Fold this protein.
Amino acid sequence: MALVSKRSIRGLTLVEIIAVLGIVVILAMLLIGVVAKLPGAGDQARCMANLKSLYVSLSNYTEENGHWPQQPAFPAARQVQYEDWWLKTLKPYDATESTWLCPAVTRLGKLREGNFPHPRVCYSPTMFDDQPRTPWKWPGMPWLVEIANVHGHGALMIFPDGSIRNLDDVLAERGH
């Protein structure tokens, strides 16, 4: 018979079990924090891709027609007409209905209570005159502004050079 020492058959001590559980809890908390941020980061990336696509559509429209889209004046109560007009105007330039939707605005809108319609246009285009170069005349004037601060740093905006910035950063750059 082989002799077995007491050291080789002993189990884990209470201190060791508590230390292992503590490490597992810390790792779980870190993982939960990372996983919680994933939908927001994905939403922001998709939103930025939508803004780039709309930027290309607006550039193509302006180049082909010689001016920025001249939106009719809609009464405030006619949000549906406003949305329909933009959807129809840029559709030939590959701006689909889904391009106009920020996934975060859509997701948060579904959580809202009440009878509020979900927006079909989540980016508000700037109104420019019908001169060919006006949209590029002021580099600090955004072409499109997101309708809500759903990404945590102010609404996203796309500028004439195609850069995308959030409102908080733009205000900080301008000293506000």
Observations:
- The CA atoms of residues 45 and 163 lie 14 Å apart.
- The longest strand covers residues 123-125.
